[in-house]
Specification:
single chain; binds 2-amino-2-deoxy-6-O-phosphono-alpha-D-glucopyranose; 8 helices; alpha/beta; Rossmann fold; seven-stranded parallel β-sheet; about 260 residues; three-stranded antiparallel β-sheet
Length: about 260
């Protein structure tokens, strides 16, 4: 696993956006570049950078197909907290050459959740899998909506949200955890780790325990993000604030080995 530490959130986002754009630009095959995407506050700065680069002609999304990680069950697209709404607000509506038919987001209003999830897996497979999956994590280490104790082999499916996650996410729902949907559709940990590359953003003091668990802890379903230790091309992009719980040696090791990446 690589851990790329930057001074602050803005630099972390700039680095991640450059990394993603570099991968898209290096993709010379006719088949599309398949990009997995998250929501949450962590990727907002990355999306801002990617939009700027796209508008400046530095990266094209014309041959990019996207798959989002998750979606709340029971929220219509038009709801301002649906992940469909989020993705259009922060990314898709601003890209000059993203094809709407290349955007894939789980349908939270489906009357057949299991079927919807099975079709999502099939569609990912039809493209030959995901080239690069960007993710964020929750304070409890959840990746997509794979809460603690979700199988590390899980596939796309229906997930129950923990009370903790509903409390954390209630900041977007008028601070009322009851207003946060109790369930979501989410790619599985296995879906993410099947991707050729995984890039996870970890920013801020409140993610420090999760970062330490991801990098230094044992592989455990207690911290579903720790499954990344078994992936042969996983990168954590983080900021200094998130490093507070790392051992000094771990921190120094990654600063040293990734010093070329420091912005
Ligand atoms: C939600 C999403 C996750 C996301 C997490 C962290 O629970 N389902 O995919 O990574 O929030 O969000 P934030 O980046 O806002 O801390």
């Amino acid at each position: 696993m690589r851990v790329v530490i930057q001074d602050n959130y803005d630099k972390m986002c700039k680095w991640a956006a450059n990394y993603i754009a570099g991968k898209i630009n290096a993709h010379k095959e006719e088949r599309p570049f398949v990009l997995g995407l998250p929501t949450g506050s962590s990727p907002i700065g990355v999306y801002k950078e990617l939009v700027e680069m796209n508008k400046a002609g530095k990266v094209s999304f014309a041959n990019v197909v996207t798959f989002n990680m998750d979606e709340y069950l029971g929220l219509p697209r038009e709801h301002d907290q649906s992940y469909w709404y989020f993705m259009h607000e922060y990314l898709f509506d601003h890209l000059v050459d993203m094809k709407p038919e290349n955007i894939n987001i789980l349908n939270g209003m489906t009357d057949d959740p299991e079927g919807e999830c099975a079709r999502y897996e099939e569609k990912i497979a039809s493209y030959g899998g995901i080239d690069l999956f960007m993710g964020g994590i929750g304070v409890d280490g959840h990746l997509a909506f794979n809460e603690p104790y979700t199988s590390l082999a899980s596939r796309t499916g229906v997930r129950d949200l923990t009370t903790d996650t509903r409390i954390v996410n209630s900041r977007f729902f008028g601070n009322d955890p009851e207003k946060v949907p109790a369930q979501a559709l989410s790619v599985g940990i296995g879906t993410v780790t099947d991707s050729k590359e995984v890039l996870v953003l970890i920013s801020g003091h409140n993610k420090a325990r999760a970062l330490a668990a991801t990098v230094e802890g044992g592989v455990s379903q207690r911290w579903t993000c720790s499954a990344l230790q078994l992936h042969n091309a996983a990168i954590i992009a983080c900021d200094e604030e998130a490093c507070g719980e790392l051992m000094v040696d771990t921190y120094k090791y990654f600063l040293d080995i990734e010093k070329k990446e420091r912005l």
